[in-house]
Amino acid sequence: MATEKVDPIHQFHINKIIPIDIGGLDLSFTNSSLFMVIVVALAGGFLYLTTANRGLIPSRLQSVSEMSYEFVASMLRDGAGTQGMRFFPLVFSLFMFVLVANLVGMFPYFFTITSHIIVTFALSMLVVGTVVVYGFWKHGLHFFNLFVPQGVPMLLMPLVVMIEVISFLSRPISLSVRLFANMLAGHITLKVFAGFVFSLGSLGALGVGAAILPLLMTVALTGLEFLVAFLQAYVFAVLTCMYLNDALHPGH
Amino acid sequence: MFVTPAFAETTPTDGTTTETGVAHGEGHGGVFPPFDPSTFASQLLWLAITFGLFYMFMNKVIVPRVGGILEHRRDRIAQDLGEANRLKEESDNAIAAYEQELATARKKAGEIAQSARDKAKASADAERARTEAELAERMVAAEASIADIKSKALADVDAIAEDAATSLVKHLLGGAVTKTEVAAAIRAAAAK
């Protein structure tokens, strides 16, 4: 058993905890579902408990909650203007959910829900869906102005409109793939280097000495992955703000 | 669907699985787990449930609460600044009132001093005027008596000159002249 090679993909497997099958559709409560619940409980519980005192002078943990609130609020104000603040609960929920999911995934043996494309794609479709629905509800057909930049010569217009449409359609894909690929690649790299430590270490005394190099690499990568975990949550939220800006001001 | 049997086997031993997962991975028929469509429905459902609850919790509880805390703090700071400004204005007013009081007191003191000086000066002036008037009166009286004495003396001089002239004429010329002739001659001589 000990000599079995380390499989870097194993960490992404989904195992059923409570099998649920409705009409042939597999809706089981899996390890992924479990960690979704954990992420929501952690994020919600932290925000709820640290702000319970409503301190005029915040405690340390309360200021962490306030800082994340103001961080997202200023991000949204910069990206989509004051009108964008109506989307604040959505952007704040997305940011906190992705951030906590990424950070929870950094613990060994923990499942990273954002390393599954369907999760990140669903979240980005939520964003783009909000943009489209709100855009049409608010601006009606003027929402199509989004694809017609001002000051473009008539001759170039069909080409530019086509490019704009393609770029709009690729948004949910780029938004979801960016987060998914970062988390997936980071975890695989970590696992591969950690696997080197394990397989070199089982080669005897010389191997143990050589295993120090991938060990150092693993430590460094762990630090990098914590940065990536925060950065990807931030990027996801910033891009959400920019897309929401299109829904609010489609005329560029 | 084709994966279900493999999973059914793994679930009971799930607690102890670490390395055995590799074998189950092959049980998926080599599908890379993030791209395994058989798990999509479950993930979407549970994501919708958990994220939906999370969104509702954020929307109803956390965002109003943290927003309220921040707003309350902002209001409180603004209120404290307002209070500080009010107190400062009050103290400024007190200083201004004090300075005005001081200025009026100084002015009043000056006035009192001035009136005292004026009174003293007026009384001194009156005294001097009285004295001067008295002196002038006395001088007038003295001048009058001098003039009186002088005119009396001058009248005597005429009589003496008449007598002397009459006797001189009598002695030198031996003739007698009348008193009126002598007086006319003296008057002519005096007028020369």
UniProtKB/TrEMBL annotation, chain A:
<keyword id="KW-0813">Transport</keyword>
<keyword id="KW-0066">ATP synthesis</keyword>
<keyword id="KW-0812">Transmembrane</keyword>
<keyword id="KW-1133">Transmembrane helix</keyword>
<dbReference type="GO" id="GO:0005886">
    <property type="term" value="C:plasma membrane"/>
</dbReference>
<dbReference type="GO" id="GO:0046933">
    <property type="term" value="F:proton-transporting ATP synthase activity, rotational mechanism"/>
</dbReference>
<keyword id="KW-0375">Hydrogen ion transport</keyword>
<feature type="transmembrane region" description="Helical">
    <location>
        <begin position="144"/>
        <end position="170"/>
    </location>
</feature>
<keyword id="KW-0406">Ion transport</keyword>
<keyword id="KW-0472">Membrane</keyword>
<feature type="transmembrane region" description="Helical">
    <location>
        <begin position="87"/>
        <end position="111"/>
    </location>
</feature>
<dbReference type="InterPro" id="IPR000568">
    <property type="entry name" value="ATP_synth_F0_asu"/>
</dbReference>
<keyword id="KW-1003">Cell membrane</keyword>
<comment type="similarity">
    <text>Belongs to the ATPase A chain family.</text>
</comment>
<comment type="function">
    <text>Key component of the proton channel; it plays a direct role in the translocation of protons across the membrane.</text>
</comment>
<dbReference type="InterPro" id="IPR045083">
    <property type="entry name" value="ATP_synth_F0_asu_bact/mt"/>
</dbReference>
<feature type="transmembrane region" description="Helical">
    <location>
        <begin position="190"/>
        <end position="217"/>
    </location>
</feature>
<protein>
    <recommendedName>
        <fullName>ATP synthase subunit a</fullName>
    </recommendedName>
</protein>
<feature type="transmembrane region" description="Helical">
    <location>
        <begin position="224"/>
        <end position="245"/>
    </location>
</feature>
<feature type="transmembrane region" description="Helical">
    <location>
        <begin position="117"/>
        <end position="137"/>
    </location>
</feature>
<dbReference type="InterPro" id="IPR035908">
    <property type="entry name" value="F0_ATP_A_sf"/>
</dbReference>
<dbReference type="InterPro" id="IPR023011">
    <property type="entry name" value="ATP_synth_F0_asu_AS"/>
</dbReference>
TrEMBL record, chain B:
<keyword id="KW-0406">Ion transport</keyword>
<dbReference type="GO" id="GO:0045259">
    <property type="term" value="C:proton-transporting ATP synthase complex"/>
</dbReference>
<dbReference type="Pfam" id="PF00430">
    <property type="entry name" value="ATP-synt_B"/>
</dbReference>
<keyword id="KW-0175">Coiled coil</keyword>
<keyword id="KW-1133">Transmembrane helix</keyword>
<comment type="function">
    <text>Component of the F(0) channel, it forms part of the peripheral stalk, linking F(1) to F(0). The b'-subunit is a diverged and duplicated form of b found in plants and photosynthetic bacteria.</text>
</comment>
<keyword id="KW-0472">Membrane</keyword>
<feature type="coiled-coil region">
    <location>
        <begin position="81"/>
        <end position="139"/>
    </location>
</feature>
<dbReference type="GO" id="GO:0046961">
    <property type="term" value="F:proton-transporting ATPase activity, rotational mechanism"/>
</dbReference>
<comment type="similarity">
    <text>Belongs to the ATPase B chain family.</text>
</comment>
<keyword id="KW-0375">Hydrogen ion transport</keyword>
<feature type="transmembrane region" description="Helical">
    <location>
        <begin position="40"/>
        <end position="58"/>
    </location>
</feature>
<dbReference type="InterPro" id="IPR002146">
    <property type="entry name" value="ATP_synth_b/b'su_bac/chlpt"/>
</dbReference>
<dbReference type="InterPro" id="IPR050059">
    <property type="entry name" value="ATP_synthase_B_chain"/>
</dbReference>
<keyword id="KW-0813">Transport</keyword>
<keyword id="KW-1003">Cell membrane</keyword>
<protein>
    <recommendedName>
        <fullName>ATP synthase subunit b</fullName>
    </recommendedName>
</protein>
<dbReference type="GO" id="GO:0046933">
    <property type="term" value="F:proton-transporting ATP synthase activity, rotational mechanism"/>
</dbReference>
<comment type="function">
    <text>F(1)F(0) ATP synthase produces ATP from ADP in the presence of a proton or sodium gradient. F-type ATPases consist of two structural domains, F(1) containing the extramembraneous catalytic core and F(0) containing the membrane proton channel, linked together by a central stalk and a peripheral stalk. During catalysis, ATP synthesis in the catalytic domain of F(1) is coupled via a rotary mechanism of the central stalk subunits to proton translocation.</text>
</comment>
<dbReference type="GO" id="GO:0005886">
    <property type="term" value="C:plasma membrane"/>
</dbReference>
<keyword id="KW-0812">Transmembrane</keyword>
<comment type="subunit">
    <text>F-type ATPases have 2 components, F(1) - the catalytic core - and F(0) - the membrane proton channel. F(1) has five subunits: alpha(3), beta(3), gamma(1), delta(1), epsilon(1). F(0) has three main subunits: a(1), b(2) and c(10-14). The alpha and beta chains form an alternating ring which encloses part of the gamma chain. F(1) is attached to F(0) by a central stalk formed by the gamma and epsilon chains, while a peripheral stalk is formed by the delta and b chains.</text>
</comment>
